[in-house]
Amino acid sequence: MRPVLWSVVAALALVGALAFVGVVQAARKAPIEETGRYVAVKGGRLYVVELGPADRAPSGPPLLLLHGASGNLGDPREAIGRRLALRHRVILVDRPGHGRSDRLGGREMASPARQGDAIAEALDQMKVGRTVVVGHSWSGALATNLALDHPDHVAGLVLLSPATHPWPGGVAWYNSAAATPGLGLLFAATVAAPIGLVTFDKAIEGVFAPQKPPPNYAERTQSKLLLRPAEFQANAQDLADLKPFLQRQAPRYGSIRVPTTIITSDKDNIVSPELHSKALHRQVRGSRLVVLKDAGHMPHWTETNRVIAEIEAVEARAH
After folding, report:
1. Each residue of 135-154: pLDDT tens digit?
2. Integer CA distances (angstroms), 182 to 175, 235, 251, in order
3. Which pLDDT score, from 0 to 100, does residue 55 have?
4. Does any domain span residue 181?
5. pTM given for the model
C-alpha cells in the first residue's frame, strides 16, 4: 500500500477511535440511567425499561408511562420519558403483544383489564407500589382500568388524548380484517405489512395532524415494529375489542378518587375530545381538564413542556 494511502487510513482510524471515545465519555456523563429487562408474568414476559436520575435520588412516586395503539414504549420514552427521568423514576412497559413483550395469551389479551392485570403483576414482581400512571390514547382505557381494578398501584392519573368512552361506528377495515381469528394473521403478513411499509410515513403525519411529526420519528421510536404480522394482529385486536370494553367500563369512572389530569387538544382528529376527555372530566370528581389549542393527537411530542408540567403537578399532589 502506498505511503499516502497508509496516511489516509491511519487518519481515518484515529478519527474513528476519537469518535468512539467521545461516545463512551458522553455515555458516562449522561444525567440519567437506563435499564431494560424482561419481567416474568403469567403467560410469558413483559419488556420493561426503567429510567432515572444518575446523580440524585428520584423525586416522588414512580411515573408509569403507557403507550397507545400502533406503538411501543419507544414513543413515550423519546417524547417525555428521558426528560422526566432527570428528576423522577420512570417505568415504561411494552404492552402485551407490542414491542418486545409477549402477547401472554389469545384474543382475551386485547382487553385493557387483562393487560392491566399483567402490568400490575409486573409491578409486584419489581416491588413497585403506587405510581402516577400516564396513559396515551388507547392506554387511557388501560390507565383508568388500573385506577379502578388495581388502586394499590395508582397514586395519580395523567391521561393524554385518552380513549375512554364508546364512540359511533367501528374501526378501520384493515384492523377488522387483521383481528379475525385464523385468516387475520395471514392478512397481516401478506396485505397489511407490505401496504404499511408504503404508507407508514403518511400515517404518522395523519396521527400528528394538524401539527408536524418530529424528524426521524419512526426510527427514534422503532414504531415500524408494528408491521410484524403478530404485532399487527395484536394491535388490531386491541382496537377492535376496545369499544365493547369501554361500554362496560365507562359507567365506573365516578369511582376514581386519585388526582387526575386529562389533557386533550381541540384539533384531535383521532380521539374526539367531546366524546372522551370532556365526558371523563364530568365523571371523575375533582379532575382537571386541559384543552390545548391548535394541537392534535400527540401532545406529549408537540406540547412537551406543558405535558411535563402537568405530570409533575399530579406527581406533587400524589405524595
Report:
1. 999 999 999 999 999 999 99
2. 14, 15, 33
3. 86
4. no
5. 0.90
Q: What angle do CA 309, 162, 153 make, to 5 degrees?
A: 70
CB 39 within 8 A of CB 48: yes
| Cβ neighbours of 318 (radius 10 Å) | 18
DSSP 8-state secondary structure symbol assigned to residue 138: T
Q: Does 173 reside within a domain? A: no
**Which pLDDT belongs to residue 29?**
43
Overall domain count for the chain: 1
Collect the ranges in the chain with pLDDT lower than 70. Answer: 1-30
Degrees, nearest 5: CA angle 273-274-279: 105
Any domain includes 260: yes
Backbone angles phi, psi at 50, to 5 degrees: -115, 135
Q: What is the CATH number of the domain that holds 70?
A: 3.40.50.1820
Rounded Cα gap, residues 25 and 30, in angstroms: 9
pLDDT for res 20: 33
Q: Is the residue at 282 inside a domain? A: yes
Domain holding 127, by residue range, is 32-168+242-317
pLDDT of amino acid 144 = 99
Q: How many CB atoms lie within 10 A of CB 316?
A: 13
